[in-house]
Amino acid sequence: MIRYFYYLVLLNMLANIILFVPRILLAHRFEGSMMSLVLSVPIGFTLLYVFVKSISKFPGQGFPEILKKHAPRWVCIFILIYFIANWFLAGMITLIAFSEITKKYINPDISSMLIVLAFVIVVGMIARLKSESVLFCMEILLVTNVPIIAWVLYKAVTNEAMHYDACFEIATHILNRPTWDSISAGTYIFTGYTNLVIFNRLLKPNKKIPLLWTIPIVGTCVLLASFLIPVGYHGTMAVNTYIYPWISTSDSMRVEFGLVERVLFIFMLLYTNISLAGSFIHWHVGVEFFKELIPSQKEKTYFTWAVVAAMGGITFLLSYFFNDNSLFNFGTLYLNIRLVSEIALVIIIVILARRKIA
């Protein structure tokens, strides 16, 4: 089951490319985005490393079980409700954002509300499954999509339209002071590890997670690619005019002898799968947290359906009130709060691990 830890981290790294992280970094490209990338890798990996080492002290247990053994009931309820909101919002934002992308770039004639409803049904159906089944679904999507994504990234960096002088121009601003927005966006690529709050239940006791040192290397490559490739294609000034920079970047690429010439369609298909996978992982964690609030009902199928229906219903209703700008602002606010919440989660796990050892 160790491979699923790396799948969770990789999934989050890939999912960040198409949504808000590149746009936030590009918005601050002259105001410290390069320095934020430099800082994000050690900050994100430190949080990951400390969390993994601490939660390994509780083999076979999720965060709710750990919390119940070491904290009063009212504290557990407060913390669980707070993190339910965090994981629910992560899935909700992804679904709403990708419904807008689907409407704009695939079929503008379809109502965005209908697209949201379709995505909510798919994600909800998977999120309600057992944790093992959810991980199997994620594995299938990653194994079938990641090789093609890697090929698209390779085509991007080797394309003649990629102007590296624009990337070097951005790199000259590396000494500029970073903003909190850019650091929050940069550290988001490592956040996949936090899903161990539930999936740690499936890890075998006394089983160490090897090769953690590869994560900051891969994370650095993903961050640089998601930030600099759009700059190389669109230039240092025009790149900030796009709502979804990577969609426009993929539409700038062609596969001359491919079955589908425009890379946009391939890219959209791949990231539909990746985005849905990220959403059902987030919602599954939220559902499992919610079950712990009412332990007497958590084994009942109708209760799981009710929780998923509530999450889907709220997402469907709120999608009506978002447009591109308000969704981006909300996503930026979420990422800022997410970093604080992530640090708090790591601190809680560290404290509980030390208390157990003592």
Structural commentary:
Helices cover 73% and strands 0% of the residues. By secondary structure, it is mainly alpha-helical. The chain has one domain: Amino acid/polyamine transporter I (Up-down Bundle), CATH 1.20.1740. The longest helix is centred in the C-terminal third of the chain and has 34 residues, at 324-357. The chain is globular. The model has no long low-confidence stretch (mean pLDDT 89).
Structural key phrases:
mainly alpha, 0% strand, Amino acid/polyamine transporter I, 358 residues
Find the count of extended strands (DSSP E, 2+ residues). 0
Mean pLDDT: 89
Given helix and strand content, the structural type is mainly alpha
CATH topology: Amino acid/polyamine transporter I
What number of domains?
1
Q: CATH superfamily, called what? A: Amino acid/polyamine transporter I
Supply the CATH architecture.
Up-down Bundle
**CATH class identity:** Mainly Alpha
Strand proportion: under 5%
Tertiary shape: globular
Cα distance spanning the termini:
29 Å
What does the radius of gyration come to? 20 Å
Please report the number of helical segments: 15
Quick one: biggest sheet?
A: none
Low-confidence stretches at least 5 residues in length (pLDDT < 50)? none
Q: What's the helix-strand series?
A: HHHHHHHHHHHHHHH
Helix residue percentage = over 70%
SSE layout:
Layout: H1 2-15, H2 20-27, H3 33-55, H4 63-70, H5 73-105, H6 112-127, H7 131-158, H8 164-171, H9 180-187, H10 196-199, H11 214-234, H12 245-251, H13 263-293, H14 301-319, H15 324-357
